[in-house]
Amino acid sequence: MNELVGKRALVTGGSRGIGAAIAVALAEKGAAVAITYAQSGERAAGVIAEIEARGGTAVAIRADSADPAAIERSVKEAAAALGGLDILVNNAGIARYSNIADFTVEDIDALLAVNVRGPVLTAKAAIPHLGEGGRIVTIGSAGADRIVGTPGTVYFMTKSALQSFTRGLAQELGPKDITVNLVQPGSTNTDMNPDAGEFAEFQRGLSPLGRFGQPEDVAAAVAFLASPAARQITGTILNVDGGALA
Ligand code: NDP
Fold first, then answer.
1. CA of residue 175 to ligand 1 center, whole Å
2. Nearest-5° angle of CA 30, CA 237, CA 26?
3. Ligand 1 pocket test: which of 107, 157, 190 has the largest number of ligand atoms within 8 Å of its C-beta?
4. At what angle do helices 17-28 and 215-226 cross, to 10 degrees?
5. Alpha carbon distance 40, 15 (integer Å)
6. Gene3D superfamilies from the entry (predicted)?
7. For residue range 174-191, what is the model confidence (pLDDT) as tens digits?
8. Which pLDDT score is estimated for 82?
9. Is the confidence at residue 61, as pLDDT, over 80?
């Protein structure tokens, strides 16, 4: 339960859904946590209050992952508030769905900016703060390996990019004893993909377990990869998808 005591973690997009569950899970194991958010100041404050009520340390920073200057500022603020950084979780992401004929340049740019450029720039800003035993965990999607509905093509494409990013960065940072891994959720019950949504039954049918995951299921995988027990795991992809890719 205490394996992250003394560790300092930054979780992007921690105000809701999977990111909020990750922040709480890391704090439960003893880490001091900074979260970023784009809009939901009140919900971010709720996550901080939840962590503090359980005796943890947490801070919320407003920073749009589509904005390079905001990313740099938020990493600096997080490191200053926590006294350094040991763990980065690149979670912030957006989904936009459309058939290719109707996909706008604005949609493509928004997806690439938040889902691809965001994690790259956040890692770039965080790496100078990470020491031996540092951890980078990025949240991709099982949809990178199995397209779930063609309107998701461009969204899933952004998640495929994170696979190469993870493998390359794992090679680059291995000599510094920093691990880099990718967690790919399947259908997970959040605002982005509610388990009572229009396509929920279809998605349940894709998984041998026949159910949506909860944000806590993804958070448990991230907390493990962030822990000292996972020190020999790097450059890998862990699917938390109820077996949808099996
Ligand atoms: P939600 O939409 O429920 O929450 C998204 C979180 O990311 C919020 O905290 C939001 O902040 C933050 N965020 C969004 N855009 C930005 C931005 N530009 N800058 C900073 N923060 C931002 O999504 P999920 O929790 O479902 O998704 C989390 C991750 O998991 C994403 O990367 C998603 O692609 C991935 N994923 C989700 C799956 C699912 O079924 N739910 C399946 C596979 C992958 P704010 O509250 O301020 O808007």
1. 31
2. 10
3. 190
4. 50
5. 6
6. NAD(P)-binding Rossmann-like Domain
7. 999 999 999 999 999 999
8. 98
9. yes
At which residue do the structure tokens 């309107």 appear? 151
pLDDT at 65: 98
CATH superfamily of 8-240: NAD(P)-binding Rossmann-like Domain (3.40.50.720)
Active site residue 155: yes
CA of 41 to the centre of ligand 1 (A): 14
Q: Which amino acid is at 198?
A: E
The Cα-based distances of 1 to 27, 29, 30, 65, 123 in angstroms read: 10, 5, 8, 31, 27
Cβ–ligand 1 contact at 217 (below 6 Å): no
pLDDT over 90 (residue 1): no
What is the C-alpha to C-alpha distance for residues 137 and 90, in angstroms, rounded to an integer?
Answer: 6
Are the beta carbons of 140 and 159 closer than 8 angstroms? yes
